[in-house]
Amino acid sequence: MKSYEVNFDGLVGPTHNYGGLSYGNVASQSNSQQSSNPKEAALQGLAKMKALMDMGFQQGVLAPQERPDVAALRRLGFSGTDAQVIERAAKEAMPLLVASCSASSMWVANAATVSPSADTADSRVHFTAANLNCKYHRSIEHPTTSHVLGAMFANQQHFAHHAALPAVAQFGDEGAANHTRFCREYGEAGVEFFVFGRSAFDNRFPAPQKYPARQTLEASQAVARLHGLRDEGVVYAQQNPNVIDQGVFHNDVIAVGNGEVLFYHEDAFLETDKMLAELQGKLAKVGGNFQSVCVPRSAVTVDDAVRSYLFNSQLLSRADGSMLLIVPQECQANERVWAYLQSLTSSGGLIREVKVFDLKQSMQNGGGPACLRLRVALNETELAAVNPGVIMTAPLYGSLTAWVEKHYRDRLSETDLADPQLLLECRTALDELTQILKLGAVYPFQIN
Q1: Among 151, 162, 212, 329, which residue carries the largest CB count within 10 Å?
Q2: Within 13 A of 220's CA, how many CA atoms are on the CB side?
Q3: What are the backbone dihedrals phi and psi of residue 291, each rounded to the nearest 5 degrees, phi first?
């Protein structure tokens, strides 16, 4: 039976703005308060989805969240009609309104952790929505994320869904941004690689001093238990706290893996040699041949990696076994990074080609190609059980492009978030979107 890695990209929401909400994310903070272009952001993301589909890769789409999140504002004490809630929040607590309008759910690498059926005890694909409790504006996402994923992967014979972990610091979970899976074939048993920034209960693990470590070891272990993973099919590794303090807030900013290959920066991890040996040994037990590509700091500094998002790229397997790297335009603009990529692809090694995409709107808010997609390994039967409305096709691309052109603003500033009309625009757009994607009622305004 054939198997596939399907990339489900996040559709950028109508309230895409530069709120500078993510402490530790250099790009997010440095572009704070600039005007954004939601329409351009959504169209850039859709263009990437279509391009990958046209290249023969399985591609899906994951819907954005309802924003502003009026219910979240009500829980914080704002009352009245929806319009009055927004107006009062804008007057009394603008930062809370900005947080409630965040379109950060576009980065669906943080939506959940996914384990394919070949790895799990009950032979189903398992999803655990990420609690994202390190940042308030992201911590409010997981209820709707669970509804949307449930509507996309509804067949209980093939798919199992878990609620987010307890929303406390000890179980901080950032989803697939800190999770990679290595395997010989997507439908075969593999090794799941969990990267954590700190331990909540064991002080033997060093922690960063400047920026928070968002993923805990305990959260990763809990997800592995929930998914029924075998001990011999899991490897845990600690992210280097020094690179977290340089703006590497998730592992996918400093490393990316696919198939049997890990592409990583020299400074990405602690105890790197031990980690690589464990990955190699465990993958070999299930018939795989683990390989790694280390980018030396002498060629690309951590600062280069953060500013270019070299590692927040998509590493994709071609039919001939070679690898393709999807990178943001910022990699081409960085002289050292681009020189390294040219030497990498010309050396005849594992990664043979680089394709560049313009994702400026997402990049300016701190998310690149890898942030925009959630990877789900599926066999033919499982893929057939996915809601067909969310699988990208040429007609769906056309419908979504027309939908964006119809509903999205081409300029959004912080002051625009206080406009109650924006909420009505977003709800109208999302109500239509659920019909396009055949999701049913997944948003609070549709359910309540």
Answers
A1: 151
A2: 25
A3: -135, 150
Q: How far apart are CA 388 and CA 182, in angstroms?
A: 27
pTM (2 decimals)?
0.95
Backbone angles phi and psi of 201, in degrees to 5:
-120, -10
String of DSSP letters for 25-80:
-HHHHHTTT--B-HHHHHHHHHHHHHHHHHTT--EEEE----SS-HHHHHHTT--S
The DSSP element (H or E) to which 355 belongs, if any, is: strand 351-357
Dist. CA 410–CA 286, nearest whole Å: 50
Buried b (16+ CB within 10 A) or exposed e, 226-249: bbebeeebbbebbbbbebbbbbbb
Q: Please tell me which residue in 137, 161, 250, 407 is annotated as part of the active site.
A: 250
Of the residues 134, 183, 331, 371, which is catalytic?
Answer: 371
In tens, the pLDDT along 229-270 reads 999 999 999 999 999 999 998 999 999 999 999 999 999 999
Give residue 22's pLDDT band: very low, low, confident or very high (50, 70, 90): very low
**3-state class (DSSP) for residue 386:** coil
Task: Indicate the angle between helix axes 394-407 and 420-436, nearest 10 degrees.
Answer: 170
Could you tell me the CA-to-CA distances from 430 to 34, 38, 168, 338, 442 in Å, in that order? 25, 14, 30, 39, 10
Q: How many CB atoms lie within 10 A of CB 163?
A: 12
| H-helix or E-strand spanning residue 143 | helix 142-152
Tell me whether residue 250 is one of the annotated catalytic residues: yes
Q: What is the largest CA-CA distance in the chain?
A: 64
| Strand, helix or coil for residue 413 | coil
Q: Which two tokens stand for residue 231?
A: 């001990």
Q: What is the pLDDT of residues 352-375, one digit of tens each?
A: 999 999 888 888 877 889 999 999
Which listed residue (5, 66, 174, 330) is catalytic? 174
Three-state SS at 11 = coil
Residue pLDDT, tens place only, 115-150: 999 999 999 999 999 999 999 999 999 999 999 999
Domains and CATH numbers, the chain: 3-67+102-447 (3.75.10.20)
Eight-state DSSP code of residue 249? -
Is 174 catalytic? The answer is: yes
